[in-house]
Design goal:
thiamine pyrophosphate; 365 residues; 13 helices; PDH_E1_Alpha_Subunit; pyruvate dehydrogenase (acetyl-transferring) activity; single chain; pyruvate; 8 strands; 10% strand; Rossmann fold; globular; Pyrv_DH_E1_asu_subgrp-y; two-stranded antiparallel sheet; 43% helix; binds thiamine diphosphate
């Protein structure tokens, strides 16, 4: 699967590559090549990870729901580059790539998808509920909009303690129509909380286009009723996302204000792994593939002489190995003990917590 989606060789001649290298600055305004290649690698890692997850799902290695970040890689890497390590992140259920880019090891993410005890949520969360306090990823939520009030609460805690972290709260376009969106934006603005609401506009909430669900389809404007400044960015462009998000993150930190960032990109597959996306026309499906952010970045890097065939091969191989290692790790990890089912339900032990499972005899010794 990963092989068929391998980036195409560009076939540029050496002299053209050299000439292009001289143009690198005009393409990228003095960006360091190693930084650009790191972004490229991160994006490719997320792509290959997700492809492998899709494969594992169809082989019944992964259960439950599974939503992929295919097509959103530039947005994810750009957003995570804008955060400091101490900043908090809340996401919806489409979050594998965010966890990896925020610093969780791909092994622990894959193991969680497989429901193994070595997973980042000890195997009890699954695809939609990745949680990593070490990297300050505070979930992974399956309820549309469920993450928003919690993100606002985290921002309130930051303000209450007088510290200088910010909260980023990611969501999909469809989420802007849920009540929690409006309640959360209202309180965040009223109480001057440092939270960046990021709307990933992939133009579709499950199978419903934005224009059919939002009276204001220009989503960055949807905070205006709450006096929240909104900005739209091309989510296919990792550098544009990084720069725009960095400005908002730093403004939230210094001005103690919420902001709304809309990043648009294309969902390359269906809503979840099991959705064949039959509601899309052939043209729409082709349009999504033509807007592949990795292919676009690869072309720019190649034009600038930063991504040579050799480097491309090297990165592709190391990414392939890392994903294979993550899948092997997951495959060979144990399932969690049933007796630990309630261990992570509450922060503190609960006096009458039941250890009895439905299949256990009621009067067991
Ligand atoms: C409260 C609630 N209502 C409905 C659902 C079912 N549901 C799951 S995903 C989804 C669409 C959300 O679309 P969007 O916010 O655009 O996010 P995307 O899937 O595009 O990332 C819906 C309606 C849900 N999980 N929670």
């Amino acid at each position: 699967m990963a092989d068929t989606a391998k980036p195409k060789a560009t076939g540029k001649t050496g002299s053209r590559r050299r000439a292009a290298r001289n143009n690198a600055d005009s393409h990228f305004n003095g960006e360091k090549p190693e930084v650009l290649l790191d972004y490229y690698r991160q994006m490719l890692l997320i792509r290959r990870f997700e492809e492998r997850a899709a494969q594992a799902y169809t082989q019944a290695r992964i259960g439950g729901y599974c939503h992929l970040n295919l097509g959103e890689e530039a947005t994810i890497v750009g957003l995570m580059e804008a955060l400091q390590e101490r900043d908090y992140l809340f996401t919806n259920y489409r979050e594998h790539g965010y966890a990896i880019a925020k610093g969780t090891h791909p092994r622990e993410v894959m193991a969680e998808l497989y429901g193994r005890s070595t997973g980042v949520s000890k195997g009890w969360g699954g695809s939609m509920h990745l949680f990593d306090a070490r990297t300050r990823l505070l979930g992974g939520y399956g309820i549309v909009g469920g993450q928003l009030p919690l993100a606002v609460g985290a921002a309130l805690a930051i303000t209450y303690r007088g510290s200088d972290e910010v909260v980023m709260c990611q969501m999909g376009d469809g989420t802007t129509n849920i009540g929690a969106f409006h309640e959360s934006l209202n309180i965040a603005s009223l109480w001057n909380l440092p939270v960046i609401f990021v709307v990933i506009n992939n133009f579709t909430g499950m199978g419903t286009p934005v224009e059919r669900s939002s009276a204001e389809p220009e989503l960055y404007k949807r905070g205006s009723a709450y006096r929240i400044e909104g900005v739209r960015v091309d989510g296919r462009d990792v550098l544009a996302v990084r720069d725009t998000a960095t400005t908002l993150v730093e403004r939230a930190r210094s001005e103690h204000r919420p902001f709304l960032l809309e990043a648009f990109s294309y969902r390359m597959k269906g809503h979840s792994v099991v959705d064949p996306a039959k509601y899309r026309t052939k043209e729409e499906a082709e349009e999504a593939l033509a807007n592949d952010p990795i292919a676009m970045f690869e072309e720019r890097l190649t034009e600038a002489g930063i991504l040579t065939d050799e480097i491309k091969k090297e990165i592709a191989e190391s990414v392939k190995a890392e994903v294979a290692d993550a899948a092997d790790f997951a495959e060979n990890s144990p399932h969690p003990e049933v007796s630990t089912l309630f261990d992570y339900t509450y922060a503190t032990p609960v006096a009458n917590e039941s250890r009895r499972m439905p299949a256990d005899p009621v009067f067991a010794e």
